């Protein structure tokens, strides 16, 4: 399974249809950092045929821009609406990735989305999972979409 292609396809589709915004994928990053500064991460857990998570990591500025476009409002501070919107973006991305994985006959359940953020925070995930960390550019800045999955034996 080409996880990078699944992430690119899902991200481009969700941003174009839900936000009317074109995003440009970069090359997958070879290493991830567990520490994020001045931003928000939205995440959704995945269980079933695959176990892992999908997360979107973005700066406060990009998170506010996404939220403003998504909700059609002016956003001036990072508040609960911003955290909810970034969590919902992770949910939509995970749902789209789930669909591409389910075409292979995999049964996957998604968790309720959540979001964390702050001046500096740590985001750790499953060490043994296959992972891809894809950077994307949009007019308001850059963000990352991370997918970590481990196929479960039947």
Could you list the spans in which at least 5 consecutive residues all have pLDDT below 50?
none
Q: Quick one: overall form?
A: globular
Q: Report the strand count.
A: 7
- The CATH topology annotation reads as Chemotaxis protein chec
CATH architecture: 3-Layer(aba) Sandwich
How many strands, what sense, and barrel or not for the largest sheet?
Answer: 7 strands, antiparallel
Total domains = 1
Looking at how many chains there are and whether they match, the oligomeric state comes to single chain
Give the DSSP E fraction (strand runs of 2 or more residues).
35-45%
What's the Cα radius of gyration? 15 Å
Helicity, as a percent range: 25-40%
Give the CATH superfamily.
CheC-like
Please write the string of helix (H) and strand (E) elements.
Answer: HEEEHHEEEE
Mean pLDDT: 89
Distance between the termini: 17 Å
Structural class: alpha+beta
Question: How many helix segments?
Answer: 3
CATH class: Alpha Beta
Task: Please give a structural write-up.
The structure is a single chain. The chain is α+β, with helices and mostly antiparallel strands. The chain has one domain (3-151): Chemotaxis protein chec (3-Layer(aba) Sandwich). Helices cover 33% and strands 38% of the residues. It is built from three helices and seven strands, in the order αβββααββββ. The protein has helices spanning 3-18, 60-71, 80-102; strands spanning 24-25, 35-48, 50-59, 108-110, 114-122, 130-138, 141-151. Strands 1, 2, 3, 4, 5, 6 and 7 form a seven-stranded antiparallel beta sheet that branches. A hairpin with a 2-residue loop joins strand 6 and strand 7 (141-151). Helix 2 (60-71) packs across helix 3. The longest helix has 23 residues, at 80-102. The model has no long low-confidence stretch (mean pLDDT 89).
């Amino acid at each position: 399974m080409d996880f990078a292609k699944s992430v690119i396809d899902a991200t481009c589709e969700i941003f174009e249809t839900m936000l009317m915004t074109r995003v440009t994928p970069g090359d997958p990053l070879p290493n991830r950092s567990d520490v994020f500064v001045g931003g928000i991460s939205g995440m959704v857990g995945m269980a079933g045929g695959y176990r892992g998570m999908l997360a979107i990591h973005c700066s406060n500025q990009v998170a506010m821009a996404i939220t403003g476009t998504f909700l059609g409002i002016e956003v001036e501070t990072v508040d609960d609406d911003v955290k909810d919107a970034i969590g919902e973006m992770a949910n939509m991305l995970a749902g789209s990735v789930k669909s591409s994985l389910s075409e292979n006959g995999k049964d996957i359940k998604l968790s309720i989305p959540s979001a964390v953020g702050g001046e500096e925070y740590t985001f750790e995930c499953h060490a043994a999972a296959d992972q891809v960390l894809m950077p994307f550019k949009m007019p308001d800045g850059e963000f990352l979409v991370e997918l970590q999955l481990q196929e479960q034996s039947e």
